[in-house]
Amino acid sequence: MNSSRTMRGARRRPQNHIEPEEEKLKVPQESETTTSAAKDPEEEISKKYRRQLIESQTTSASRVPDKKKIKVRWSLQEEIAKLFNPALEYALVRWEGVSCSISPCPIEDGDYLCTSIMETWPEFRKAGSFRGPTDAGLSFRYNIMLLDTTGMIERCVVSGPGFLMFKLSMKWIAESIHKMIKGGIGTFALKRSVERAILYFLSGHIAEKMHTGHLRSTVIGETLARILEYSGVEVIRRFHQEDDLELKMMTEFLIERFPNAFVNDLSPLELEVLYMKSKEMFDEDAEFRERAQQLQSQGCDERHRIAWAQISKISRERNQNIYERLGIHVKEEVSCFDPFDSNNIKTPYIPRKIESERDEAIRRKFSVDLAALWHALNVVKADWILHVTDVRQRDRFEMFISAAERLGWIVNDGCPYPLSHVGFGVVQADDYERLRTLSTTVVYLVNLLDEAKIRSKAVLVGQGKADEWTAEELEHTAEALGHGAVKYEVLKNNRLTECRINFDEMLNEKGNTVVYLHYTHAQVCSITTNHSRAIKRLKKSKGVDVEELTLKNYEERELGLHLLRFTEVLGEVCTVLMPHILCEYLYDLCKKFDSFYTCVCQVVGYGVVENRKLLLCEATAMVMRKCFHLLGITPIHKKILKLRPGSERIYFSDLTEQQLMELFCDGPCFGFDLCEVALRHNIDASVEIRSSYDKLLLFGIIQAETHISDPSHNGSFIILNRNIDDPLVITKPGSLLSPRDICYCSLSVSTFVKITAKLYGTTYLGGGIESHKDYQKCYPDITDELSSMDDEKVYLNDDAFDVCNGNVLINFSEYFATRPNGGSGSCKLKGKDGYLDLYYVALKYAVEAALEVGFVATCKETKVFGSVMAYYGKNFGYDCCASERSLYNAMLFEIKQPSHIEPGSKINLTRSTLGVPAQYSLIIDAKLHDFTSGDVILSGICEFFVPVDGSCSVGFINGNGCSLKVKVDWKLPIHV
């Protein structure tokens, strides 16, 4: 979806090219919400003609496909591009073959963001058809709405410099999911231009059991191979050719000491003893070491070849058991070179200039790598070659790739094909030390898998499954759970970082673990099994009423959209070769289904009204099973837990002070949250005309800065910022200045906060008469002062008032010395003509809370107004009198008539982020009135305690035929 590459090949139209009806087809400059008016017949004809013209261009362009522009995969973004590309091509009339740049929208008001107008604007500015990017964006949006015959787009707005932010309709999302469950999960498969790929695993040691060093290579490589196979790519799995010195060393030792022995009679254990003895002799005996090295460089006789083949067979058969347990299917291929004949490397002539001159062994290894590459490119005809080894071999592969480029075998054109090195970090123990092998502590992979099965079986027995299941079911489930836990722990971590093995964390039922994934999958399966007949009818039916499937609420929409992004995620995994992205997608899918189940789907009845729920459940089950397959995890259809994860939640408020200090291991996490700002002034005495003024126009800035003892750690946030053209209107002294959304910051015990205010104002009498003679004259003076922000005071004339000009320093080390558990506080900022009262709270063990509030009602025509505020409960230390208590509440939103809110909408909050003391609680207090009668139809509170696991909290405040849904997303500090 990147427009830059496509634009380089775009062809400019002739200057004398004339578009039919060009003047008629220019797009009117309309905003998102255009008032409806009587339809103009000529305008309707123009729209109809324009639609036909654009569709004809799209059809004609598709008749002669350009291979360079054919998309190699299907995804939700490509479905959007089918609508957006022709719309953009016609909006920018003088270009052909443009493609849109579409990416997920970073804010919740949209699903996707199209930035093509801004990216291509410099090229099209010369055409002179548009006044600016915003003008072009409006034309682009107009074309999209004309071409959208399927109802894909629910809302599309032009924001910023021509950016298009849009949301997909719930009806279209449901229809797309219905097509997927009818066609099968293969409908969402990637379509890649690669036909054949070779994937090299890290080969097992010739005489040693597979250890944890092989774990990440096999698991990561198998997942990438399965994703490519799901995309229709033929994948050939092979072992990476490593140094064969150990093999030569063992065969020489065996023939020298036991000339008449048969290697086939050796057990795997005896083979390990043979390796250790030969390694010891190689290190101590110089003559033996020289013979082994000569054997590597000069070749050997038939006895060595037979011994080598037998040793390799024993090692391969022993390792095959591990591969089967891990679900790895590697076919042994005939090597492209003879390891005992240095003169028979099957590769064309390699120029001497790229051979290594340092050491014969390095030169031979380098030649072997190039031989394998030449064989893969010219014999196997592979389009893509992937080597999955640890990151320490990165330099070796960079040299290898550079040499292949110099030979002309591959072309470096910025494409990831045909050669990729998939590096990964080491596997660590629970104490963050590397799991070592060979000469140090040996951690065999078979022992790790056995331990995982034993631990998993203990978890299942603890859940009472030994009494519910047969012994065979318990064994099979324990093996699937244990092996899946090991694989998922490897895959969910970024492959470039270290992976830590901790069975207690891996088998935890909370968080991003395989136990939580299996529980969610079993929960989905219980619904689909109970309604299997209805789901079969849903799959077979062709004329299903769309209204039965249309999604109805926020949870359904979030789950449905996430399901449609499955192919998009697979494309990203294949591009960057990072399997943890798929793990994150699967975990998010489980969380979204959990939210959907909690709020919508706890009770699934029968009839057409439940079709949309069954649609989402079946699609979730299909996508989850495909994710499990791609990750190499065997899905478990039975519930492995007695209780739903999180049903027995532990809260910080239930812990002792000692337990809190242990959880906040790096010391208490302090926080500062500004609640309210009150304006006090004496401007009445300064007004030239002694009559009362109508309002005060206030402009300026209030800013808070945090400073820690370490000067590199500081931050700031804006409390209030109004310029002269957009002043804040104050009608009376003592008015409250609503702070901006983010007025919370974290502190350390040695932190202080500096609050600076520079506020100015002018009075207004009403009726268009201002109190000063020439209001414009003071603008430059005020602007200069606000921009300079220096300590020298600029005296203004009497027509503009210095409401507040100064700063205050709050030392929280002194504050927490007297109030160790935190509490409330206030400070004053003075000016020539007034002052500000600032009310704040200081928090110990602070946790950040992101809030979402939605309004639902049984009647769609219900309209309400009112307010919702937040404060702390459980005897929080508010140090103030009762009359000032409300000043420490955080106003989430306040809507007065004639404004109102309607059901089904997520409310835009004034404050959506708050700091919450973990040892106390957060209380949401709401009061809503009916818009028509003014009667109170909802009044109540909802209390939230901070969970130790940081999981999301959801609560409801119910009223007369309506309710407020409050969602709190807790963000625990990193060190907790």
Protein described:
- There is one protein chain.
- With 976 residues, the chain is of the alpha+beta class.
- It folds into 5 domains: 3-168, Gyrase A, domain 2 (2-Layer Sandwich), CATH 3.30.1360; 196-382 and 384-417, Rossmann fold (3-Layer(aba) Sandwich); 445-631, Isoleucyl-tRNA Synthetase, Domain 1, CATH 1.10.730; 670-843; 846-971, Immunoglobulin-like.
- The chain contains 27 helices and 29 strands.
- The strands form 7 sheets. Strands 11, 15, 16, 19 and 20 form a 5-stranded antiparallel beta sheet that branches.
- β1 (102-104) and β2 form a beta hairpin.
- α3 packs across α5, α8 (245-257) crosses α11 (302-326) and α18 (514-530) crosses α23 (580-599).
- The chain is globular.
- The model is unreliable at 1-73, 340-347, 353-358, 436-440, 685-692 and 765-798 (pLDDT under 50).
**What is the CATH topology descriptor of the largest domain?**
Rossmann fold
Treating each run of at least 4 consecutive H or I residues as one helix, how many helices? 27
- Gross morphology: globular
What level of helicity do the residues show? 25-40%
Ranges where pLDDT stays below 50 over 5 or more residues in a row are 1-73, 340-347, 353-358, 436-440, 685-692, 765-798
Give me the CATH superfamily of the largest domain.
HUPs
Biggest sheet layout:
5 strands, antiparallel
| Terminal CA distance | 40 Å
- The CATH class of the largest domain is identified as Alpha Beta
Q: Rg, please?
A: 35 Å
Catalytic activity: tRNA(Arg) + L-arginine + ATP = L-arginyl-tRNA(Arg) + AMP + diphosphate
EC number: 6.1.1.19
GO molecular function: arginine-tRNA ligase activity; ATP binding
Region (Disordered): 1-50
